[in-house]
Amino acid sequence: MEKARTRISGVATRTPLLAVGEGGSRIWIKAESLQLGGAFKLRGAYNRLAQIGAERRPAGVVAFSSGNHAQGVARAARMLDMPALIVMPADAPEVKVAATRALGAGIVSYDRARESREAIAAHIAEERGAVLVPSFDDVDVIEGQGTAGLEIADQLGRAPARVIVPCGGGGLAAGIALALPNSAIVTAEPEGWDDMARSLDSGAIVEVPADAPPSACDALLSRRVSDLTFGALREAGARGVWASEAEVRAAMRFAFGMGLVVEPGGAVALAAWLAGKLPEVEGDTVIVCSGSNVDPVAFAAMLRDSA
Amino acid sequence: MEKARTRISGVATRTPLLAVGEGGSRIWIKAESLQLGGAFKLRGAYNRLAQIGAERRPAGVVAFSSGNHAQGVARAARMLDMPALIVMPADAPEVKVAATRALGAGIVSYDRARESREAIAAHIAEERGAVLVPSFDDVDVIEGQGTAGLEIADQLGRAPARVIVPCGGGGLAAGIALALPNSAIVTAEPEGWDDMARSLDSGAIVEVPADAPPSACDALLSRRVSDLTFGALREAGARGVWASEAEVRAAMRFAFGMGLVVEPGGAVALAAWLAGKLPEVEGDTVIVCSGSNVDPVAFAAMLRDSA
To answer: Cα–Cα distance between B273 and A279 in angstroms, integer?
Structure first.
């Protein structure tokens, strides 16, 4: 992972580690919400793309994502002067499509109901010779995300006792688990979408049931984790917690009070901690706030509703 | 100022210096909006209060402010185990009164129309033997605020070419000017409230006219700068710019897109820069975002209106 750190040095922002409360506090927020592009995704995308050989670069990269991974890949590709195509659902939020296009990526739309994004992306990759960049099921992507964990230890001057990490597919949590082998790792997921928690409990991958409730945590609505991410977290002895939608809104409001914009999915670890779902520990607890890409109107509604 | 830095070390947050844009950018935001208490004020208040001798501490401190200085003094007093009384207008926003009270300070209300807060505070100070803590007209307060400037040079590894600083009474700008004698200092004020700019232009202190327009920048609505702050900035060769209310809202929206909550007054330097009111320079430009204490409903309205 030291190589990943070297690759992203000067590219990704070294995001701040902010104390929650006054001096002497052992509770910290790792504000990946302040990362370039508004989420941690640039770390993994850049670490993957930078390793593509010169002969394959002209054919570029392809990824599927309706959100933060799309922007991470698009930005990394622009930085490395490679073309990028992102497969996005036709009903993706216009703000996210526009942000991805503004980074110079081509957009391929698909119909969520009738087409498979995996099949479209695989077809493009084969046809063009482009490299498919998975959002979490990839060693280089996971190691790139893990650089956030290396920074935490640097910034604290020691490994924290515990890190609580928002978890969709598990790329960030797995990366941090690899970066901080002596810290307890806790994954945090939205209510009803806690498939990583259930998988860790049962010792085998469990999918999100088809009747899972809706959630504002759009960045975390992955239906299945991967062998890679699950394996790393199981190996690390990680466990999982979940937070309700109301607890997520309370966490967004708490972060607002600290001066941070955090999107719903990015606030789920803070939500679980604020809701008292984790026992106290001796030593430092680091809460990762993983993104800030929230629609302004939705953010405004959250502020008004909880006022 | 090194002594001030030592005093506030481990007390005030070392706030992040965030690049605006990708690696190689020479534009930076010093996010004092992420300071403990949501504004830079703790720096100056703590630096002043920490120098009060043991024999005067039991009588405590008194300050007048309807906003960020109130919270800075209240927090510093709590940290140093001193009583604090804050003179606040009876019509101050309930959220700011509550925040100040939550920090353990006593609140003395006054009627803005009929009473003088200066007279009330002076009376309390005399009667109790309490120390009056000015919000900007004080060498120790100014030096405390200036520690933000020392941090900027540390974080950059060099002095920036230019720093743009929100300016009310001028304490933060004067402190940064003293901390960074080789940097160009630019003060930023709301439209119609640019008395520091006019004072620097004319070479003598000019007050804000009685018919100045309303402004959302509540933290910057000081009608007169002081000999100390004006003197330090004139000596530094500073100049001033202003930003309109619409430009301030655009800057708040820009900061939101970066993941930062910034209050109107805290965004005025960013507003002036975004609006193109400053020439390009070689080297680094640091824009100070000085606070995040904004009413959630007002922030929501800003997001909706500019959506």
So the answer is: 46
Residue A87 pLDDT more than 70?
A: yes
Name the domain boundary from A87, A116, A132.
A132
How far is the C-alpha of A172 from the C-alpha of B48, rounded, in Å? 43
Q: What is the pLDDT of residues A246-305, one digit of tens each?
A: 999 999 999 999 999 999 999 999 999 999 999 999 999 999 999 999 999 999 999 988
- Domain encompassing residue B108: 42-132
This prediction has a pTM of: 0.95
Q: Chain B: residue nearest A42 by CA?
A: B22
**Residue in A with minimal Cα distance to B19:** A13
Decide if B303 and A297 are in contact by the 8 Å CB cutoff: yes
Q: Do A259 and B256 make contact, defined as CB atoms within 8 angstroms? A: no
Shared domain for A99 and A238, answered yes or no, is: no
Is the Cβ pair A259, B16 closer than 8 Å?
no
Q: Is the ipTM of this complex over 0.90?
A: yes
Number of domains in chain A: 2
Reference B63, options B54, B53, B52, B55; nearest CA is: B52
Same domain, B152 and B290: yes
Q: Within this chain, do residues A12 and A78 fall inside the same structural domain, yes or no?
A: no
Overall size of chain A counted in residues: 307
Residue A156 tokens, joined: 């604290």
